[in-house]
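In the laboratory, one determines a bound structure by crystallizing the protein with its ligand and collecting diffraction data. In a computational setting the workflow is compressed into a single prediction: the sequence and the ligand go in, and a structural description comes out. We illustrate the idea with 2-(butylsulfanyl)adenosine.
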Amino acid sequence: MSRSLRDRAAKDLSDSEAAKELKALAQEIVEHDEAYHRNDAPTISDAEYDALRARNAAIEQRFPKLVRADSPSRKVGAATAGGFKKVKHGVAMLSLDNLFSDEDVRDFDARIRRFLKLNETEPVELTAEPKIDGLSFSARYDHGRLTVAATRGDGAEGEDITANIRTIKGLPDFLMGDAPKTIEIRGEVYMTKSDFLAMNEAYAKTGSKIFANPRNAAAGSLRQLDPKITAERPLKLFAYASGLVEGMDWATHWDFLKQLKAWGFPVNPDAKLCKTLDQTLAAYRQLETRRAALDYDIDGIVYKVNRIDWQKRLGFVSRAPRWAAAHKFPAQQAETVVEKIDIQVGRTGALTPVAFLTPVNVGGVIVSRATLHNQDEIERKDIREGDTVVIQRAGDVIPQVVEVKTEKRKRGAAKFVFPNHCPVCGSKAHREEDEAVLRCTGGLFCKAQAVERLHHFASRDAFDIEGMGEKNVEAFFTDGLIKTPADLFTLEARDKKSLTPLSAKEGWGALSAKNLFEAINNRRTISLERFIYALGIRLIGQAKARLLAQHYGSFKEWRKAMVAAAKGNDEVRNQLQGIESFGDSVTDELVAFFGEAQNMAAVDDLFAQMDKVEDFVQADVSGSKIAGLVVVFTGNLIAITRNEAKAKALSLGAKVAGSVSKNTDLVVAGPGAGSKLKEAEALGVKVIDEDEFLKLIAG
Ligand code: IVH
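The predicted complex, in structure-token form:
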């Protein structure tokens, strides 16, 4: 990223400059997140990291349509839902890095070559497979027989969907022919566009809930506690990868795909083997032209290095393999009319404008709403009710308005006036300096905020209470059954004494009430990080909640510190700011939250309902001889590349630093080492060579 670009205000950037910078920022921020997540060894200061994220947010606010699918502002991890048994994957299920242009694909190829130290003439064959927009699964076969299947979950463990997936035609119960001792087969469950439309049509007639898109429909159908419901849904699947494999191997991914077919799995017929970069790019373009004609949603093409020995050497970075990537298709667009602009109020009181559209088919999915982001966005694009607009849909992202067809505007169409009061509770809406959003000042007095907070509390990544979706939370809140999180945990006891118990209420029934209470009771033991995240304190997302949990270790210590901070204790304030990525604004939010007596009471009431808030546990790197050590690599390495060595060290719990200081524990020096080696010797830091390092990490 050129210095000059980054030094310019977001509003002065052109579209292409903004896009370029957002891409660079997404990459940089991911790298820094990795440095933190994997080894707690940040390479930049807290302030610098905060500045990167703020810059990303500022550009996104100014150019909402350029917000990337992989934007750091969008990252959410999925945890498993209650109700299903958990299954640990034998090998983690990862995500893929995204490529957006031909240039990105060339870089991908170049990165592989650099990592493997290949020269330019050596061919790197890639397979190219359609990237199905469905729900990934992992099905384990022992001695050729299906034993257990799971969703991806958080990558390490997913939900047991064995009974459900067995109902899908196409998934073999037994592998035909030779089978390995154990193999995890990975693939995607999906619904065709035509099945999806037909199913929704039938449901609409009976007044049942309809799904937003084929992906949601597939996910909702597979994650049914009753497999009979799954069996009624038109699900299909493709197999495309393996997880844990014992007792069999293949030279190439292409061979593996052939084996999948021989075993009886459906394998995508459009998979291609590309021998050159030109063939790879041609495969992408060919598939792109066929995309709309395919009867299932794809959002790109997945490239995989064909040679398995190379895949093994390339390994993984954080949550994605180095040997595979997803080349995304551009968003799909369509023209429609804005029938109405509505203002919705979120958990933090943010007033968000939403456009209600004349339903339109965008690449096989019916879209009837689009986000308008905020007041500035509406003004900048001058979007009015009745306008004809171009909208676009990109993957999971809520559809956005790309442009207004002003030439089609009806005469007399009035400019949209953004309200200065909360449409839900009527309180004044306030806009902070430097913020793009207006916020309702009604706090918990505002029903919208209270409901959103409770909904956040029960959501997947927080307390993960199945059955406490938006609709039920709102109904319970309106009925006066729940006001604060603690109320959820006293619901069952109160319900028993009630003259109108839930089980007798319309639409509830004994079973759903029982399931709900069970889901709630299952969460009386919770990790400290989820507890903190669930409170919905502004700016405290999952990552920051985790950092707080890590820093304070236990609920008791954390609470003590928060109370002290709220009372203005400078020492605690400094301590907070010492945590990676915690700046003034984060600290201010914590102080403000705990300074409110009713928040403090809500936290304590909730804690009183818990059986246990579990202390934070560090990842297990026992057995590693370099866990916790600060390691510096210098000079040339021979047997493995510098990147491989670093990746290995990180995965074993070491911190990798770029320069030698008195904090360095170990320097790994190869031939050609210069100043860093000298410094290490001067400081008396232990120095070893590559062979010794390899022995050290071999255990
Ligand atoms: S391979 C380590 N192949 O895309 C490689 N993934 O963004 C694992 N997906 O979680 C994935 N089609 O759900 C692979 N042909 C394909 C795919 C595919 C769809 C999904 C999958 C994965 C996600 C990554």
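The pocket of 2-(butylsulfanyl)adenosine is lined by residues 94-96, 129, 131-132, 136, 188, 240-241, 302, 321, 324, 326 (CB under 6 Å). Keep in mind that any predicted model is a hypothesis to be tested, not a measurement.
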